[in-house]
């Protein structure tokens, strides 16, 4: 009888390990672009400026952040000062914008498209954000 119970416990243990393995891993992909919010109106005075968009040059930047055991975080330390809608990968999106503009003469990215990929397993979570858009300069009048 004891040997039979031992075999059942062993099978249950293996089943538990398999279930935990499959439920602890996941992958998410988010795609977004900045769009105007419907019904929102802000009254401000216009700044006399021209935005010169270079449609011949596409900018791209990628940022990766890895969190180990939910405590230790590694990733980029430089971020663009941008208000990006959505909570998924906001810091990574800002770091991707910074990387895309770094070393160029452009001031902003026009029509940005974001791809955010989140990979999770039992001990490690990796968030990768990529931004692609046109470079533009702002010229004050």
Largest sheet: 5 strands, antiparallel
End-to-end distance: 90 Å
**What is the count of DSSP helices, taking H or I runs of 4+ residues?**
2
Number of domains: 1
The total strand number stands at 5
Our Rg estimate from Cα atoms comes to 23 Å
Low-confidence stretches: none
Overall residue-averaged pLDDT value? 85
Query: Could you say which overall geometry the principal axes of the C-alpha atoms support?
Result: elongated
Write the H/E string, N to C. Answer: HEEEHEE
Percent of sequence in beta strands:
35-45%
Helix content: 10-25%
Spatial ordering of strands, largest sheet? 1-4-5-2-3
What is shown here, in short?
This protein has 141 residues and is an alpha+beta fold. The chain has helices at 2-23, 90-101; strands at 26-33, 49-68, 72-74, 108-120, 124-140.
Give an overview of the whole structure.
The protein is of the alpha+beta class and 141 residues long. It has one domain. The protein has 2 helices and 5 strands. Strand 2 and strand 3 form a beta hairpin.
Key traits:
elongated, five-stranded antiparallel β-sheet, 5 strands, alpha+beta
List the helices and strands and how they pair.
Elements: H1 2-23, E1 26-33, E2 49-68, E3 72-74, H2 90-101, E4 108-120, E5 124-140
Antiparallel strand pairs: 1-4, 2-3, 2-5, 4-5
